[in-house]
Automatic annotation (TrEMBL):
Location of the DNA-directed RNA polymerase beta subunit external domain: 83-149
A biological-process GO annotation: DNA-templated transcription
Protein name: DNA-directed RNA polymerase
Family membership noted in the UniProt record: Belongs to the RNA polymerase beta chain family.
One GO cellular component term: DNA-directed RNA polymerase complex
Domain RNA polymerase Rpb2 intervals: 5-72
Organism expressing this protein natively: Actinobacillus hominis
Catalytic activity: RNA(n) + a ribonucleoside 5'-triphosphate = RNA(n+1) + diphosphate
EC number in record: 2.7.7.6
GO molecular function terms noted in the UniProt entry: DNA binding; DNA-directed RNA polymerase activity; ribonucleoside binding
Keywords in alphabetical order: DNA-directed RNA polymerase, Nucleotidyltransferase, Transcription, Transferase
Keyword Cytoplasm among record annotations: no
Amino acid sequence: SQLSQFMDQNNPLSEVTHKRRISALGPGGLTRERAGFEVRDVHPTHYGRLCPIETPEGPNIGLINSLSVYARTNNYGFLETPFRKVVNGQVTEDIEYLSAIEEGNYVIAQANSNLDEEFRFTDTYVTCRGEHSESGLYKPEDIHYMDISTQQVVSVAAALIPFLEHDDANRAL
């Protein structure tokens, strides 16, 4: 069928990647011929849910994606990604999973933000994704959540590439 494939068992990584693959094709989905650029392109709601790097080349580009490292589906089938809760400028150990719709209502700090030994932000202003995915500088007391990892954006396979942020984009693919 269009939604079922034989398992890729060449090595453990290819098996895990195969199991975490998401397709927009098939019954009730899109067709390669009718899918436009806006469907295939990376969208802000993919952050922490779908890997922006790992997608096949050719006619399936952007239609077949991989789940990000920490992404999961909720009871309704929506993709969620985890965040650490921030209370009064202090990052807690509480982890909450948010869907893209829920995430748009909060100010979220990057995982590499500077923290002291009590998990408080050390900077006067912190670079964050604000409400509706607008980036900007925010005071620590205005922050609601913090990313749990700098690698939560990419898939399992892409996360294994050392120094990915310094690698050529074409080589990462």
